[in-house]
């Protein structure tokens, strides 16, 4: 079973969104539940392209919240490198 960790940047981004988007107090728990699937299925997220490659993308707990991660198969480790609002022009999914 893969280990899932959040980078400092991902935590800071999420904390910022909790404030700026007025997210509920259980946001961190919701994100943790969303990431739970990666423990068993680390490649479930869509492979990103271009400058975001080789990162992968998981959506949740809201359809606009992007959890961008890297899977290190050798160490069976997943690191969420950033959390983003998909509606932002600088998001990993923007053109």
Average pLDDT reading = 96
**How many helical elements?**
3
Strand/helix succession: EHHHEEEE
List the uncertain runs: none
CA-based shape? globular
Number of strands: 5
Strand order of the largest sheet: 1-5-4-3-2
The CATH topology comes to YaeB-like fold
Gyration radius, in Å: 13 Å
Task: Give the second-level CATH assignment, the architecture.
Answer: 2-Layer Sandwich
The first-level CATH class is given as Alpha Beta
**Which structural class should the secondary elements be placed in?**
alpha+beta
The percentage of residues in β strands lies in 25-35%
How helical, in percent, are the residues?
A: 25-40%
Q: Domain count, please report it.
A: 1
The CATH homologous superfamily is called RelE-like
- Main sheet, how many strands, which sense, barrel? 5 strands, mixed
How would you classify the quaternary structure?
single chain
């Amino acid at each position: 079973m893969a280990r899932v960790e959040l980078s400092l940047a991902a935590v800071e981004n999420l904390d910022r969104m909790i404030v700026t988007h007025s997210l509920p107090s259980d946001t961190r728990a919701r994100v943790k539940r969303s990431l739970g699937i990666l423990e068993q299925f680390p490649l479930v997220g869509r492979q990103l392209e271009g400058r975001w490659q080789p990162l992968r993308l998981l959506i949740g707990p809201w359809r606009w919240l992007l959890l961008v991660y890297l899977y290190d198969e050798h160490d069976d480790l997943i690191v969420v490198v950033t959390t983003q609002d998909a509606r932002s022009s600088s998001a990993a999914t923007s053109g």
